[in-house]
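Hello,

I think I submitted the SAJ job twice by accident. Can you confirm which output corresponds to this input? Input:
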Amino acid sequence: MLQKIRNKILSKKAKIAIIGLGYVGLPLALAFIKKGFKVYGIDVDKDRVKRLKASKSYILDVPSQDIKKAILGGYLLVTTDFSNIKKSDAIIICVPTPLYKTKEPDVSYIVSAVKNIKKYLRREQIVVLESTTYPGTTEEVMLPVLESGGLKEGRDFYLAFSPERIDPGNARYKTSNTPKIMGGISKNSTELAKLLYEQAIDTIVPVSSAKVAEMVKLLENTFRIVNIGLVNELMLMCDKMDINIWEVIDAAKTKPYGFMPFYPGPGVGGHCIPVDPIYLSWKARMQGFEARFIDLASQVNSEMPHYVVNKVTEALNYRKKPVRCSKILILGVTYKKDVKDLRESPSLEIIDLLLKKGAFVSYYDPHLPYLKIGKINLKGLKFDRNAFRDSDCVVIVTDHSGVDYKFVVENSDIVVDTRNILKGIRSKRNIVRI
Ligand code: SAJ
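Support: Only one job matched these inputs. Its output is below.
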């Protein structure tokens, strides 16, 4: 059987089902299609399926033209119908893994996908989970469901974990040239899944188990949240000592080895960094272990929006203006520069805190014309003189490219800069830096 599957893969006859056509699944589908594989793109979101069928991309790194070519060429079939799994030789799961409000892992999307796979699972199929999750998910959550019909992993079907490493908008590292970790439940699974992925991705890094592969991804993102927390705490320290943290970091990064710069900011957003490490600390707690670094970093980072609002309050006070009834313009609201994504963006908390203090809040973001926060709908302002002159305080929360920051400083009474994007502008009395 192993040889049969190997031949299907090597001859590109293996059909691939990808469940979840988001920023991970869609580029992965196209990476396989580019190498001549036929892909069933399966998503529960009817609107997404409709848009893809109309060759309309909603993913930054996927041109609509590529979708059109894939569909017209018969390489991509987009559907909400999971029964296509029956016809597939490989099934790859790229679904979200968010947190519940209780800050506990929400693996319901994985469970729903694996239950759908189970309905159609047959012999000689490879199943790979890509969604970032806690160590043990593949073995403890997926394996029992897939084996519940009597098929045996490693003999009848193959199961592995391969963490996604997509960095939306990254011009240099794409799906095909970013090394990919691969860890199977059984040795055969690692080997077969590696052979499959090697057809579309330059470098596959096999590891000894699915758990190791799950942990690799969590180390990568825990490394980031802890270092961002560290530099945020150093910023708070330097603020007390009247030291310019940005100058300190720029000087420290001249060290050619053993140092990697991270930067303070208004908080940590996105659906990876503030979420993935919590999956790890939750699992550790289940095993009776306190992941203190993760919990402390999360706590420091979650204090940053409050720190920014304090800076705004101090700046207004200095001009004898209360926050209440002040007009405050938030410049840049998405979670990081030059991306459209609003998930977990610190700007949402900053806006909420300012509204609660009675401020009149508006925003400008070149990537986001409208902003909905709970019951509040904010319409993005136009980037013009009046927008800034009418504001009592402008807060730069996300430092998108292509914004004329000099114009902002020249036309604003106060500018609070949380990203040091104004470093090149001769320091003026109206600039407050974190
Ligand atoms: N942030 C800081 N200071 C920093 C770096 C980031 O405050 O020094 C903030 C950002 O503004 C943002 C949040 O942290 O709000 C997360 O930023 P990020 O640069 O880590 O970007 P993400 O969330 O897009 O992380 C993704 C991750 N990719 C995957 O999980 C596959 C991460 O592993 C990548 O390292 C990161 O992209 C990247 O390097 O672009």
